Amino acid sequence: MPEGLSILLLAMALTLLLAVQAQRAAAGSRLRQAFSLGAGAMAVAALNNLLLLLNLGSALVAPLATLTMALFLASLLLATLAFFNGEFQAKLRQAQELAAAERTRQASEHKHTPAAPPEDDA
Q1: C-beta of residue 46 within 8 angstroms of C-beta of residue 7
Q2: How far apart are CA 66 and CA 47, in angstroms?
Q3: Which of 54, 98, 107, 122 shows its CA 20 to 30 Å from the CA of 28?
């Protein structure tokens, strides 16, 4: 598979992933806006890669790359604002609860596992 094609497929997959995350985020939230802008940035990057793969639009490479970077930076800014506004608190709490439950489960498994008998070196 040509290198450009694998990069194009990766960009398309990331576009889809970010679009799904945007749809799952609360309507009107900065987090949703951040994911949407990230998906837009990946879509523009995928378009740029497609044009390069097809040997078309070499004059569009710089403007499309600039647009991609602008969208990524705006997405990063909105994600940062979402973090400081507490939009990540529920997700962080959920991750902490899952980690605590996993630690508890592992500790109970460790208690119920019989100790291995000592090895005889004789």
Answers
A1: no
A2: 13
A3: 98
- The answer for residues whose C-beta is within 8 angstroms of residue 22's C-beta and 6 or more apart is 32, 35, 36, 38, 39
- Give every CB contact of residue 43 below 8 A, 6+ residues apart in sequence: 11, 15
Token output for 69: 């970077």
Distance, in Å, from the CA atom of 78 to the CA atom of 74, rounded to the nearest integer, reads 6
> Rounded distance, CA 86 to CA 82, Å?
6
**111 to 62, 88, 98, 100, 102: CA distances (angstroms):** 60, 35, 20, 17, 14
Predicted model pTM: 0.72
In the chain, which residues have pLDDT < 70? 1, 113-118, 120-122
What is the four-CA torsion angle of 64, 65, 71, 73, rounded to 10 degrees? -160
